[in-house]
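Lab notebook, bench 4. The sequencing result for the construct came back, and we need a structural model before the next group meeting so we can plan mutations. Quick request posted to the team channel:

Model the 3D structure of this chain.
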Amino acid sequence: MKCLKQTIFPIISGILMVLIAGCSTVGGVVGRDTTVTLNITTATDINPDEDGRASPVILNFYALENERQFEQEDFIALYQDPDAVLGRDLIFTTKFKEFTPGEERTESLVVDDRTRYIGIMAEYIRYEDAATKIVMPIDANTGNKFRMFIDRLSMRYE
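Done. Here's the predicted structure in token form:
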């Protein structure tokens, strides 16, 4: 009986060690998705037109490997040709359906594991007077959740 314990105990211990080690690396090996969930709330006075009336606004989403170029570019350059101005930093971009004043909506996306930042650019009518861009750092292989607020002529997140 003592011999059996001396043989089985090391085998079971070895199996448990392998299982525990496997659990700690499964995220990297299996490749859990990197997701971004944005809970977006718009103010009732967003995107004022030339008469001061609130108007819908379109948000552009950018999955970025690096944020520096996005932060340096101006609204027109990003609006006209994001691929050319962002180059290798841009993984992909998409436009969300327009947001109306006073709207609350959740947008969820799965992004490439190379994505380290997301950039959001708002298409404000008076873009010259607005803070049109924000950048958010994200973590790979996990769910990233943000609460975004689209204000009159600016954006912020928590």
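The beta strands are 34-42, 59-64, 90-95, 104-111, 117-122, 133-137, 143-150, 155-157.
Will bring this to the meeting.
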